[in-house]
Amino acid sequence: MGNVSEDTLKLVRESQAVAMPDDLKRAYEISSKLVAYDLEGPAKTLYPVLTPLRNRIPRATRGTGTATHWKAVTGINTSNVFPGASEGQRSAYIAQTVAEYTARYAKIGLENYFTFEAEEAGEGFDDVRSRTTTGLLEAVMIEEEHLDLGGNGTYGVALGTPVTPTLADSSTGGAIPQTTAVYVSVVALTHYGWRYTTVAGGCLGQFSRTNADASTDTINGGNSKISAAANITTATDGLSTHSILASTTAIAGAVAYAWYWGATAGAAQVIGAITTINSVKITTAAGTGTQAANDAKVATADYSKDALVYDGLISIIAGAAHTDGGSAPAGGVCVPNATGTPGTGTALTSDGSGGCNEIETDLDTFYTTYKLSPQIMFVGGTVLKHLSKIVIQGTGTGTSPTITLNITPTPAGVMTNQILTAGMVVGSYYNKQGGGGGSIIQIIHHPFMAPGMILYYSERIPYPLSNVSNILQIKPRREYYQQDWPVVTAKYEFGVYVTQVLQCYFPPAFGMRYNIADS
Question: Which residues pair with 336 in a beta bridge?
């Protein structure tokens, strides 16, 4: 055979092994370290695509221009003209209120790519092109859900500058020494500000984003301007267990607050906590390490609004200025829980009859002011657990909960084990103020909602001849589309985009209670 290399002989042996009987083949592979690799294809998709608002909000026909406009009669006989009239004479003119609304379209989208080599290497295992495209579409849908909930665009709510915190010294509950000066400031955060702000990185402020085509966009990070610094010095009592209780005025449109403190005001302050209520309990003197310092990101301006996005429900309810003329309701039913004890806050409370005091107050406001009832309550996980607890437990310790146990009947003489499932959750709420003697409000857990919020959602209004088919809708100027870019390198680049706006015809049909503390 001449000079045959060992590699060639190895290939021959391996080709012979393929033709061997299965049992002999497995024995040969194990003995020669040629074990099989059991790879299941295609790759698994293990990430959530949770978009309850997007799935529920109707989509309208396409719009045109840079914005959509509409008018509404929001009040009739607003001066309460007396209706009585003398014989042979006319009555007086009534006054009506007309408002003009504007909502700007915003283009939203994301980009991705895959290389030629990645597509080649995936052949026979997964469709790289299809998987990458589908994943990008799902990513845009998730971001649309965030915008539908908490976008704060051109007409949105400016958080401004929070009220200077109120401080109190406590001799217990912390590790701050006596006679220690502490300066505290606070920054209010929108939904996106809360999403992006961390103790390690601080607030984003205004920053530049480099895009896929090497262009740049200036992005506002969803934070207010930092408040003035309040200061307090712990008592001289020989103790090193002091804590500082700080609070500010709750701001409509803010879902969280970033707290900065330090030994002096200004740049020495570092972020030490992020809360979803308007207060905090400070237990340690501000340090360095992973805490971001107070800098131009929060000291320069209010970066809560961003012109690149449209306004979501939180912004609309909080009073986003979509009116260009006339007088119209400036938002929905928007009520904060009281500050309560700083650092602890005020939780939901039982009304003693299977309901919640705060929700009852809000539903009374809806009906008394606007003669309507919402059909859905979107809540965060903390609120859902707390609401379930107070509804089931009732007025508190010692109260017997009211529980209905459903048992499936069995044929006579057949013995079965009845299993009681632990844990209960409230899935709906009975509104005593609903039209026609009451109505049921569905409760839905929203995966992206900040703890401490209830969002009241209406799918219809009970006003006759309103000329409103969808009280809330997505109006696209251009529906979802995929843009494949020219190939200029060894990779395929593409984006998924949609240009649209969230259009709300009657903001008072929506509402929110915020600043709710955990139980």
Answer: 514
> CB 424: neighbour CB atoms within 10 A?
12
Strand, coil or helix: 205: coil
Tokens of 399: 């109260």
N- to C-terminal Cα distance for the chain? 85
Residue 9 pLDDT exceeds 50 = no
Partners of 491 in the beta sheet? 115
**Domains in the chain: ranges and CATH:** 52-75+96-157+309-405+422-514 (3.90.1690), 166-299 (no CATH)
Q: Hey, what amino acid is at 214?
A: A
Closest by Cα among 161, 187, 149 to 318: 149
Do 514 and 337 form a contact (C-beta atoms < 8 A)? yes
- The answer to whether 199 and 292 have CB atoms below 8 angstroms apart is yes
CB distance 375 to 438 below 8 Å: no
List residues bridging with 158 in a β-sheet. Answer: none
Q: What does the pLDDT read at residue 330?
A: 65
Confidence of residue 17 (pLDDT cuts 50, 70, 90): very low
Coil, helix or strand for 392?
A: helix
With beta carbons less than 8 A apart as the criterion, state whether 132 and 138 touch.
Answer: no
CA–CA separation, 248 and 232 (whole Å)? 15
Residue by residue, what is the 3-state secondary structure of 156-218?
CCCCCCCCCCEEEEECCCCCECCCCEEEEEEEEECHHHHHHCECCCECCCEEEEECCCCCEEE
The burial class, CB within 10 Å (0-12 / 13-18 / 19+), for 507 is buried
Burial class of 466 by CB neighbour count within 10 A (0 to 12, 13 to 18, 19+): middle
Residue 515 has pLDDT above 50, yes or no: yes
| Residue written as token pair 């300066």 | 183
CA distances from 23 to 17, 33, 44, 156, 473 (A): 11, 15, 32, 71, 65
Per DSSP, 507 falls in state: G
Q: What angle do CA 484, 487, 491 make, to 5 degrees?
A: 90
Is the bond preceding 177 in cis, omega lying within 30 degrees of 0?
A: no
